Amino acid sequence: MSERSELKVARWYFGGVASAMAASCTHPLDLLKVHLQTSFAEQGGHVQATLLTTTSSIVRSQGVIALYNGLTACLLRQLTYSTTRFAVYEAIKQRLVTIDPNDPKGIPNMPFYQKVLAAAFSGAVGGFVGTPADMVNVRMQNDIKLPYNERRNYAHAFDGILQVYKREGVSRLFNGATSATSRAALITIGQISMYDQFKYMMMKYAPNVFEDNLNTHFSASFLAGACATTMTQPLDVIKTRMMNAPPGVYRGIAHCAGTVFKECGPLGFFKGYVPAFVRLGPQTVLTFIFFEQLRIRFGKSR
């Protein structure tokens, strides 16, 4: 690998492709997270579901293939949401990044506050664009929990979007868009801006250990995944409930948050944290590993 591989920049679609590749590997954990987050609301808050019991129940009743229920919607979400947020962030980054003439390593960088602002804006745009696919993804993942006569039975992501449009209207496709957009802004700060910052600090302050290679990409993305999970879990719980609820159940984010607090207490906002971290950690690591390999091998020179 070239010593100046950090001077290669990503093409606009690399983030979406990398995210879809990562999501294909971690989808079962995303499905389990959704089931844990909705279990209290649907069963009165009295069932102490765990990752192991939920997995066992799904496999026993539906088979292993059920763990991939909603995969098409998951991929569509990544190809809309993640493509948008990575593309916008990279466009901003490539215009603001500079090389410090006093830095002997000559590592491209921009101030941390600019990374955070760029990530927040990019995530918000991506979250809004990806809301329809995200809602269908949640519904398809949760379908196997419902009685047979109540299942939506979407054939695939596009069928789900079309059915929602026909039966519930276009506005329903963006149900939960506010919470999804807020969560996307936070998760993009936690993932992309923190990844960039961790990577820069590692390469700048420990150049003998970290270069623009797999070791650095793995370490920085693992730390970014931990940051992103902690920042976004409360909004993720609210978003999942609002998207899965029938029309009229929640009047808005505040009402949904109040319901979660009343039913489950403060810890209810972190329901499913372990599977969320188990999913988001590997997904973040895989996303950035795939992203960096695409950038290094197929990116364009700065």
TrEMBL record:
Membrane topology: Multi-pass membrane protein
Protein's cellular compartments: Membrane
GO aspect biological process, one term: transmembrane transport
PROSITE patterns on file: PROKAR_LIPOPROTEIN (PS51257), SOLCAR (PS50920)
UniProt main location, coarse: membrane
Solcar repeats: 10-95, 110-201, 212-297
Signal peptide: none
Keyword Metal-binding applies: no
PANTHER family: MITOCHONDRIAL DICARBOXYLATE CARRIER-RELATED
Family: Belongs to the mitochondrial carrier (TC 2.A.29) family.
Name the record gives this protein: Mitochondrial dicarboxylate carrier
This protein's encoding gene: 107372170
